[in-house]
Design a protein that fits this description.
The protein is mainly alpha-helical. Helix content is 58%, strand content 3%.
């Protein structure tokens, strides 16, 4: 018995030392590697630690945490290095080919790591829809009583425009003990108003409240700002049209249409906002641009946080 304990202790020390050496070596190589051609950093050379499941002497959770942190850093670096305004509907331009392997490995090592499934459900639809469905379905298989995973899968099908499937998934989640009334309400709404903005606002507001990591919360926040901006731009266009009809020309500045905006009601009793120069600003506090030739309003993509469609 004593000999077995000594062998187990030695094994643990060797494994911990080995992983520590791997991390130290990886950091050294990362800092000292020569310049590589663009895209080569995404070579599919992920260390397949998932193969150690059942052999890591209880360290699976720790390794899963490392892969989870690595996936957040991976996408964060991609976004920071991106020089263009991101389209949240399509992140393939970032070439994030290793994101799914990171998330899949983390959830293989720790099948109950629900934060990973949630993050994948929010980010992966803009990269690979099938991977998003596969990862979230894996989460439900491993955690059938976790209603939030049904919420995330319903969200994916909603993003795909498959409102019937989304309604079905929300209904399945609503039947789980302690699931909030929101789930049943969303199931009903998918059948009748699946593609309207208020449905989208309800989904992203819930995602913002339930987010378990900063990136997911920020993604939901930006989506809510985008919806507010769409409502504002619709209102501004109506005001510009009314001004044009009455004056037989386009407005020369925002001040000219302010009286027309007073008659326009925004959702949730919001008001149009102005900066110190009397410019109408979007929900991210960047001034809208006035197209005086076409009587149109546009976003200032150099300053706004609202994503380009």
């Amino acid at each position: 018995m004593k000999l077995n304990s000594i062998k187990t202790l030695i094994s643990i020390v060797v494994i911990v030392f080995g992983f520590g050496l791997i991390f130290i070596t990886s950091n050294f190589l990362e800092k000292n590697r020569p310049p590589l051609p663009e895209g080569i950093e995404d070579a599919d050379m992920v260390f397949q630690t998932a193969n150690l499941k059942g052999y890591a002497l209880g360290f699976e959770g720790l390794i899963a945490d490392w892969y989870w942190m690595k996936s957040l850093q991976y996408i964060g670096d991609k976004v920071l290095n991106n020089q263009q305004n991101l389209n949240l509907e399509d992140l393939t331009a970032l070439n994030p080919r290793l994101l799914y392997p990171y998330l899949d490995t983390a959830t293989t090592l720790d099948p109950h790591f629900t934060e990973v499934y949630a993050y994948g459900a929010i980010i992966l639809p803009a990269i690979d829809r099938e991977q998003a469905i596969k990862l979230t379905g894996k989460g439900i298989d491993n955690n059938p009583d976790e209603w939030r995973l049904y919420q995330h899968l319903g969200y994916i099908y909603w993003r795909l425009g498959n409102y019937e499937k989304a309604a079905e998934v929300y209904a399945r989640g609503a039947s789980i003990k302690d699931a909030p009334p929101f789930m049943r309400a969303m199931s009903a709404r998918m059948k009748t108003q699946g593609n309207d903005r208020e449905t989208a606002r309800a989904i992203y507001a819930q995602m913002y409240q339930e987010a378990e990591d900063d990136q997911s919360r920020e993604a939901a926040k930006i989506r809510l700002l985008e919806l507010d901006s769409l409502d504002e731009r619709d209102g501004i266009r109506r005001a510009l049209k009314d001004f044009q009809v009455r004056n037989n020309r386009c407005a020369e500045n925002w001040s000219e249409i302010l009286p027309f905006l007073k008659t326009i009601k925004l959702p949730n009793n919001r008001d149009f906002r102005l900066d110190k120069a009397n410019n109408i600003v979007d929900p991210s506090d960047a001034a809208y641009l006035l197209d005086k030739q076409n009587c149109e309003v546009t976003l200032d993509f150099e300053k706004t946080k609202i994503p380009r469609k």
